[in-house]
Amino acid sequence: MYKIWEVFWRFLGLGFISFGGPAAHIGYFQKTFVQKLNWIDEQSYAKLISLSQFLPGPGSSQIGFAIGLRRAGIFGGIAAFLGFTLPSFFLLYFLATVNTENSSDLFGGVVHGLKLLAVVVVADAVLSMFKAFCKDGISIAIAVLTSTGLLLFPSLWMQMGALVLAAFLGMIYHKTDRYDTITKVRVNMLPLILFFMLFIGLPMLTFVSQWIEIFSDFYQSGSLVFGGGHVVLPLLQQTLGDAISTDNFLLGYAAAQAVPGPMFSLAAFLGADLSADNQFFGAVIATVGIFLPGFLLLLSFQGAWESLAARPKVAGAVWGINAAVVGLLLSALYNPVFISAVLTPADMALVIVGYFALTAMRVPIVMLVLGFGVIGMLL
Questions:
Q1: Tens digit of pLDDT for each residue in 183-194?
Q2: Domain count across the chain
Q3: Cβ distance 111 to 251 under 8 Å?
Q4: 179 found inside a domain
Q5: Does any domain span residue 42?
Q6: pTM of the full structure
Q7: What is the pLDDT of residues 141-154, one digit of tens each?
Q8: Is 101 domain-assigned?
Q9: N or C end of the chain, less CB within 10 A?
Q10: With contact defined as beta carbons under 8 Å apart, do 315 and 178 qualify?
């Protein structure tokens, strides 16, 4: 119990100060758990980072879960998740419970400013991911075809089909110097079976209650998020459809940039907004739903990742999916992010200045949130 509480308090402290997104979170973890506490060595930590990139789900939270798992077993992993997520969960839940229907023009201005910030953040994510994952003609073609398909035929099925097709194309066309080796892959089957049972079974049970439907929607999205937290935006937008207004959706997305901890805590905002009768319970089940698939997959593959990643077909599939993710996010940059936020030349000017401030001047995201909120009120 001492180790479990120790894990919880260490991650809770990081949950209050870990601004900057997954890359920054990895740095905080490295400094705290590798250099300071020696809970894990450098080599093992590097392997966890690679595994988190290989699997769908929230990368930094998966690393934190794995560190807690190594330190204090399954309850240590849960303690790490709770500690790291609770601060952002409560901040976004509180924002969702604010009555925006009868809000003043001043608050409406803040919302508009944050929607413009969402344009800046998503544009930066698209460019960064394009540079990382689209380095040849085939990967660029996969990204372009994915984006084109989703803009012309926007739907969750189109997104899923694009990811599957990209995986097959990657297996066929991705060139690698590695060769298949006959290596025993030790996969923990119980969490893997549970992952697929929930992925397949939950959509068949959505008629039972609103809570199962919410849990299913967020579980499906969490199961398909490759490439980082920003990719959850288009997946959730297609999954939830008209159940949540575009304004509220983008407000939650922009707010998730400003709070410390994992960006997947956006689920707390959306779950509360979807659950008028019991907003807190809605926030909880949405948050659990979006994080759970990534943790189940981590439990399944943590002992087998090296053997799998060394296989060219698996590496090719991941390569193709990463390229498709760029196209997926590019389509979301236009719809719903850009068309619902940029309404005037002044809005476009602010987006351009904000992009310059974020990418060239390296202004902290918290400062940008404050700046866009104030300028939104003035506009």
A1: 566 788 999 999
A2: 2
A3: yes
A4: yes
A5: yes
A6: 0.74
A7: 999 999 999 899 88
A8: no
A9: N
A10: yes
